[in-house]
Amino acid sequence: MRKEYDFSKAKANPYAKQLRKSITMQVSVEAIDYFKELAAKTGVPYQNLINLYLTQCAHERKVPEFV
Fold first, then answer.
1. Which of 10, 13, 46, 60 fits as disulfide partner to 39, beta carbons 3.0 to 4.6 Å?
2. Which InterPro entries match (predicted)?
């Protein structure tokens, strides 16, 4: 292995914009059950489904309806 490497011609990390951050939050049982049912049907983990939905909402600039 070399002592030094030349990264001057290296490409940017294509995954840098997809970084995630762990958070803790309170979520209703109804919401969790919904995403778990959807996860069972799609084979996608429910946490990923929640993240996909929240990301979609952010891209579409959706505003929640307050009941």
1. 46
2. CopG_antitoxin
